[in-house]
Amino acid sequence: MASFLRPHNWVPGPVGEELQVPDKDAKAMVGTEDTPGGKASPNPQNLRPSVFHSIKFFVFCHSLLQLAQLMMSGYLKSSISTVEKRFGLSSQTSGLLAAFNEVGNTALIVFVSYFGSRVHRPRLIGCGAILVTLAGVLMTVPHFISEPYRYDHTSPADMPQDFKASLCLLSTKAPASASSNSSCSSYTEVRHLAVVGIMFTAQTLLGVGGVPIQPFGISYIDDFAHNSNSPLYLGILFAVTMMGPGMSYGLGSLMLRLYVDIDRMPEGGINLTSKDPRWVGAWWLGFLISAGAVALAAIPYFFFPKEMPKEKQELRFRRKGLAVSDPPVSKGEDSSSEQSPAESLEKKDNLAQMAPDLTVIQFIKVFPRVLLRTLRHPIFLLVVLSQVCMSSTAAGMATFLPKFLERQFSITASYANLLIGCLTIPLAIVGIVVGGILVKRLRLGPMHCGSLCLLGALCCLILSTPLFFMGCSSHQIAGISHQPGTQPGLELFPGCMESCSCPSDDFNPVCDSSTRVEYITPCHAGCTSRVVQEVPDKSQVFYTNCSCVAGGGPVPAGSCDSACSHLVLPFMILISLGAALASVTHTPSFMLILRGVKKEDKTLAVGIQFMLMRVLAWMPSPVIHGSAIDTTCVYWAQSCGRRAVCRYYDHDLLRNRFIGLQFFFKIGSLACFALILAILRQQDKEERTKATIPNPGLQQQLLASEAKKEPEESRVGWGSSKAWL
Questions:
Q1: Going by C-beta distance under 8 Å and a sequence separation of 6 or more, which residues neighbour residue 126?
Q2: Which of 301, 413, 512, 682 fits a 20 to 30 Å CA distance from 89?
Q3: What pTM value is reported for the model?
């Protein structure tokens, strides 16, 4: 989107024309270029700009800011399952929450091309960063306005949790149902809606605040950096920025090891470990840390000038180049002065050049026309569709892969984030770098770029195939049918606990390791007593005298471990290698756009590409993946009569639908790249045919001209012979 912006040092004139500066005026330029006001300064000390007049310092500050911003925007994805458990959200709702920051971003990003050269860009970047900081702080408000997290809803509020939690006691018949009903009130529902509304508002502000940061920063660097240094600075910026998502998962791994109410721990502590399915980590603490990082990174932007002098290397380069480049420039002037009406019309349609001269209303009217003209290009449209499919895969993986790993392989949320942050994200970065190196070193043309994209997408698809078989079925859960959509009732539970009158809305799982049968609560296992075994650094809870367990127990608290936990590392290696191969297609597909559209449409094409990727991929994909995950749920928790978080999934359905959705998008990307390669080959074939077969009309003109020449030559020959005679 930054390419929408016209540089401040742009001089109106014919296409290809450069500002002519005589060689004798080169010394005068030193004084005028080195001062922000454009006036020559007789004092040599004034030629030394402050640190805020250095483009290198701006690159350093902007790298840190984008790193912190992406760390915040990606942090929610690392803690999505924790937020679901804490506030009783479905995967569809949490997916919508994760995608909601794209709403504000997409709605405003187009206008960057209009306001780009009319505002104080560093200050607007700083204001956007402050808004991002406020959004991060706002995301933590639900934690502070909510009551402390109670993982045991059956114990009285004035007693330690799990004191007599979920035990099979006949005296708890009436109180259990009464407490369940009394906890539901209009105030509880209003508070729940307020909490969800605050998080959606914070996500919207996060997207709005991020609008000016990257486009204005890139254009500012491109305007005031030396022409040969600008690619280097942007490369450094992107390299540092790409570490942001990995750091967000690393931060999530650290924060989710801490208990959610670390700031208000109950007396006597808690008897939970991070492996317990009821564990909720300190999800809110990561938002505070990342918000503080963004706030610190925003401070320097209020001291940068609206325009800073070009780097001094630009002056030496221009002075050296003017002496040898005068003839080519004059030649360019002559050639550019002769323009056809079609070329001048294309220049008028160039929105990037028109934007600074248009009003907002005119800009809105012109944009759809140029958008449709750009979308008519088949290569551009197919490349964008392929990138939409790839981005849909990435958005779904980034949002729900941690939750998938937790459920499928029985690992903690902290460990899942650690695997993604240490394996998947770094290999994806390596894939992007390798793709750029291949394009540069091999000097790949459009045809070879299309072949590289097709090969990368095909290998990524092949690596995804074994993922369907890397998992195992759900273990048996007493009283729950493994048919999605069915809700168990008390009549489905074994008869051994009929006299217990267990509450239906409680969740405190225990596992009979001898039979690998899991019970929703100790009450459903018929357990009447509880024993706490103290071990170093933690305490283990066991339940005994269980009428539904052979021998009466004891049975440990917590869910049964997955039988395929050992497959998590091979699974993640295949996922990471697939991400690396998919990332290899990033640079060559981008080059297909740059080399496939007209020169005057390149800047707008890149902007439209990112806009369509947001609208068609990053916004709907998390919601689609969340909805698919919800269809695999076999047991929903109930909160005041409404469906809350899912407690149990059918693992086979979860794996097939989640990986199948990824597979579907990868097939779509492969099909688009195959069509691109077919079109490129057809175009190449037509160009070769035109080069080898002359134009019939041109042949007729040549024959006619030869026929005219023959009488003339005969007349000339006859006249000369007569003269000779």
A1: 298, 299, 301, 302
A2: 512
A3: 0.78
